[in-house]
From TrEMBL:
Removes the formyl group from the N-terminal Met of newly synthesized proteins. Requires at least a dipeptide for an efficient rate of reaction. N-terminal L-methionine is a prerequisite for activity but the enzyme has broad specificity at other positions. This is Peptide deformylase. It comes from Companilactobacillus keshanensis. Its cofactor is Fe(2+). The keyword RNA-binding does not apply. The active site is at E127. The gene is def. Keywords: Hydrolase, Iron, Metal-binding, Protein biosynthesis. Its EC number is 3.5.1.88.
Length: 136
């Protein structure tokens, strides 16, 4: 189900809690909402739809990829960038890493480990900041 975009900075500033198999509807709602905003959004964390759970989704071309309970286990090649956010007005500076490796659960709750680089890595880092209650 497509959910409204949360702009409440109090809620967005709270740390998210782990996702369990009972939270599959949150994952579905996040994917549906991201798809509905694909013209103006490339990634989304669950708190953007008002649910403080540790799941993000990113848009990679036609593919929407959810990462459940993600954890960055390595990062390299730092750089600074200006980023915008669907929940906040304007752009802000952020430090990102060109290459990251992430452990996460897929939609079937199977453990995965994957390397990302470039823009995909940037999207993941932005959305993972949201999971920690960090607003750029």
């Amino acid at each position: 189900m497509i959910k409204p975009i949360n702009k409440d900075t109090t809620l967005l500033s709270q740390k998210s809690t782990p996702v369990t198999p009972q939270d599959t509807q949150v994952v579905t709602d996040l994917i549906d909402t991201l798809k509905s905003h694909k013209t103006d959004c490339v990634g989304m964390a669950a708190n953007i739809i008002g649910i403080n759970k540790c799941v993000i989704a990113l848009q990679l071309g036609d593919l929407v990829m959810p990462l459940i309970n993600p954890n960055i286990i390595s990062k390299s090649e730092p750089y600074n960038v200006e980023e915008g956010c669907l929940s906040l007005t304007g752009e802000r500076s952020a430090k990102r890493f060109m290459k990251i490796t992430v452990r996460y659960l897929d939609e079937s709750f199977k453990p995965r480990k994957q390397a990302f680089e470039g823009f995909a890595a940037q999207i993941i880092q932005h959305e993972m900041d949201h999971l920690e209650g960090i607003l750029i």
